[in-house]
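It is worth pausing here to work through a concrete case rather than discussing structure prediction in the abstract. The textbook approach is simple: state the sequence, then state the predicted structure, then interpret. We follow exactly that order.
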Amino acid sequence: MFVQTVENLLKEALHQRPDLFLIDFSISNDNGIKIVIDGDQGVSVEDCMFISRSIEHNLDREQHDFSLQVMSAGATAPLVNKRQYKKHINRTLGLKTNDEKIEGVLTRANDETITLEWKVREPKPIGKGKVTVKKQANIAYDDIVEAKVMIKF
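Step two, the predicted structure:
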């Protein structure tokens, strides 16, 4: 019953804020609630506070002893939601599929696939030396094992 109440409060809060979406939600055996959110324009402290208050202010502490953590997905966390890919267009991703590892710029993301572009040095077709070649790959979400935004300094 407690889990269902928290789920309903979370759904209502996210319904009020359609720019935010759920990445992870769990409740431990000792009623430790952990919520990870992301947003189409990122997540601010105020966004986390909004979700936290929407849940906490509607639960009775006399009836349930609980702890609550609301946090953003974080810069180094793997991408797990299709909406996350769309917000990272034009950023470099490190991607693992079952067959290969690719690091490239995310140029497109739709409901079925993403497109990555990158440059590699390959031997010239004729003669000695190498030439820079632009590569592109369309990858289905189902083929992605892990994807992370590569942070460049």
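Step three, interpretation. The chain has a mean pLDDT of 93. The radius of gyration is 21 Å.
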